[in-house]
Amino acid sequence: MSLENRYKTVLNRINSSNVELLAVSKKQPIEKIKQLYQLGHRKFGESYVQEAIDKIQMLKDFGLQWHFIGPIQSNKTKYIAQHFDWVQSVDTLKIFTRLNNQRGDEQQNLNVLLQLKVGGEESKRGFNTNELLSICQKANDFKNLTIRGLMSIPAPTTDYSLQVKQFKECYQVFQEMQKIFPVDTLSMGMSGDLEAAIECGSTMVRIGTDIFGRRK
Ligand SMILES: *Cc1c(COP(=O)(O)O)cnc(C)c1O
After folding, report:
1. What pTM, to 2 d.p., does this model score?
2. Whose CA is closest to atom 15 on ligand 1?
């Protein structure tokens, strides 16, 4: 299938004007990003800092919106704060604070999603609900960041009812956040589970494989 057909198929699966599509272009060549641009797409997600910065610089005249969605190491926050429009994978208060301090005062605020740990496995990244809500209470102290909502990456499963169970948990935490701070973005759903995510209130799905094909 052509990139155009894959893209249109994904848009049909989303089938809602209230859900945004983030095209996850990590490990994909810049040519494919340009092709998607030609089709009118503007929002892209990347997971690896150096690869992402190379692409951002090469495409700086295209007016794209860049989201960082990968694991964040402290020694990379400076580059992420400088180059991205959104960061979806903020998973510790330390990273959150560093991004705030390293975002230029002359730049627009960096849009941030707090990553929620779902499924309760100790090894997984993300905040638990209490930690996440306590950051929302202090949101106004962080002048260079705007908290926009939460992001989650539940354990992959092909079991639809299990997908729904995990996404419902995320939606409930998102509603708790909304009582504290005016957040508008619930980023959940990938190629294998976007339908379940949308059924449970997702406002943004992050799709790589089903748009671009397998990663290199
Ligand atoms: C790679 C990635 C995606 C896209 O996954 P696909 O299964 O290829 O759609 C979405 N979200 C995050 C956080 C990712 O790292």
Report:
1. 0.97
2. 70
CA of 82 relative to ligand 1 center, distance in Å: 23
User: Pocket residues for ligand 1 (CB within 6 Å)?
Assistant: 24, 26, 47, 69-70, 153, 190-192, 206-210
Contacts of 95 (CB under 8 A, 6+ apart): 72, 74, 77
Say how far apart CA 144 and CA 108 lie, in whole Å. 8
How many whole angstroms separate alpha carbon 176 and alpha carbon 174? 5
- All structural domains of the chain: 3-212 (3.20.20.10)
Residue with more model confidence, 124 or 187: 187
Residues 89-147: pLDDT tens digits?
Answer: 999 999 999 999 999 999 999 999 999 999 766 668 999 999 999 999 999 999 999 99
